[in-house]
UniProtKB/TrEMBL annotation:
Chain segments carrying region Disordered: 341-369
Coiled-coil blocks: none
One Pfam entry name: AAT
Name of the molecule in the record: Isopenicillin-N N-acyltransferase-like protein
NCBIfam families: C45_proenzyme (NF040521)
Stretches assigned to the Peptidase C45 hydrolase domain: 108-342
Organism of this sequence: Halomonas ventosae
Length: 369
């Protein structure tokens, strides 16, 4: 996998994205057309109508991103409404369909780590893209996500990173759609601004955003788990430098306001993740990406494990697999991606921004064996 560099105005960024990945974006629309029909009984035309209700929320909370969406549509030869619908896919479908992602933030020996597996429908595997976005009005950032979407998981040149866990819930209110909010977080200059996207702008449907920053804090950085929804988010503070999350709500401030419907494997995966991070990593001394990818490759309780593989016992429309793994060293502004399952990937894509004291465009980009 290679990274796609995008730069210029919002419109220019969008058009370049659309042109570079037109085929993948069209395939994504086909995937979500099937998913909407499988889970909520909507065809694509009906899903486009549903997405229109979120347009005023984006106009109010992040109007600049609409120019980029219009550019993506133009570059890919599609309608704006198609791209809007794609970027609101969580709000349309996650009342019934939830992902299986496992995420953690870890502060150790002056380094702030952020990592996760992204588990989703297998038919999106080849629609995963890595984007390097250098806009005129925002920090340079790296986003790993789905073609045609404005953001998902990544980091920016200031050492702000974000991970995502899907939450299945019937709640949907006022606020930014999940993927639009993720992009606004990735454009944040500092931790306070990133957290404000959840606490001030709000997010219209439940999810978990794991936000971390290289900026000084306990044990080398800062991290917060934010269980977002239209109200005040539940907040999870680090314990021993660690925040972990899977696909259920557990901050009291969120659970007292929102009902979620997690799959049965979410809590066992969280317990396993906690156990691995506390027992397998050395109490002192440096650790690296390899040790963290090993944790993301764990198969305990397979096929419902942290590293998720094909499960023939599930109905076809509910089968999920790990589509990518990412480990971010926010202190060094370095992101390493393994496309596909981390236990099987034989190469990694590594991106690093310049010197942390003088952030700027990426310093190096390479495929590592």
């Amino acid at each position: 996998m290679h990274i796609t560099p995008l730069s210029g105005s919002r419109t220019e960024i969008g058009e370049a994205h659309g042109r570079a990945h037109a085929g993948l974006i069209t395939h994504s629309l086909e995937v979500y057309d099937r998913l909407f029909q499988d889970f909520v009984g909507l065809d694509w035309a009906a899903a486009r109508q549903t997405a229109e209700r979120f347009l005023p929320m984006i106009e109010r909370g992040f109007p600049a991103i609409l120019a980029e969406m219009e550019g993506i549509a133009r570059g890919a030869g599609l309608d704006f409404e198609d791209i809007l619908t794609l970027n609101c896919r969580s709000e349309i479908s996650l009342t019934q369909a939830s992902g299986g992602c496992s995420a953690f933030a870890l502060a150790r020996d002056g380094t702030q780590w952020l990592a996760q597996n992204w588990d989703w429908r297998t038919d999106q595997l080849h629609n995963v893209v890595a984007l390097e976005i250098s806009g005129l009005d925002a920090p340079a950032l790296i986003s790993i996500g789905e073609a045609g979407m404005v953001a998902k998981i990544g980091m920016n040149e200031h050492g702000i990173g974000v991970c995502l866990n899907a939450i299945r819930s019937r709640t949907c209110g006022e606020g930014l759609p999940i993927h639009v909010a993720l992009r606004k977080i990735l454009e944040s200059p500092d931790m306070e601004s990133a957290v404000a996207v959840a606490s001030r702008d709000r997010v219209c449907s439940p999810a978990h955003f794991l936000i971390a920053s290289a900026q000084a804090g306990n044990e080398g950085g800062q991290a917060a788990g934010l269980e977002v929804h239209p109200g005040e988010p539940g907040r999870l503070a680090p314990e021993g430098g660690l925040v972990t999350h899977t696909n259920h709500l557990y901050a009291r401030a969120a659970t007292c306001q929102v009902e979620d419907f997690p799959r049965p494997d979410s809590r066992p995966r969280l317990a396993r993740l906690d156990s691995l991070l506390r027992e397998r990593l050395p109490a002192e001394g440096e650790i690296g990406e390899g040790e963290l990818f090993a944790i993301l490759s764990d198969h305990d309780n397979a096929p419902l494990s942290i590293c998720r593989h094909f499960n023939p016992d599930q109905p076809p429309e509910e089968r999920m697999e790990t589509l990518f793994s990412v480990v971010m060293d926010l202190t060094r502004r370095r992101l390493t991606l393994r496309h596909g399952k981390p236990c099987e990937s034989d190469e990694s894509l590594t991106v690093q921004f310049g010197d942390a004291s003088a952030p700027g465009r990426r310093q190096s980009l390479e495929d590592e064996p």
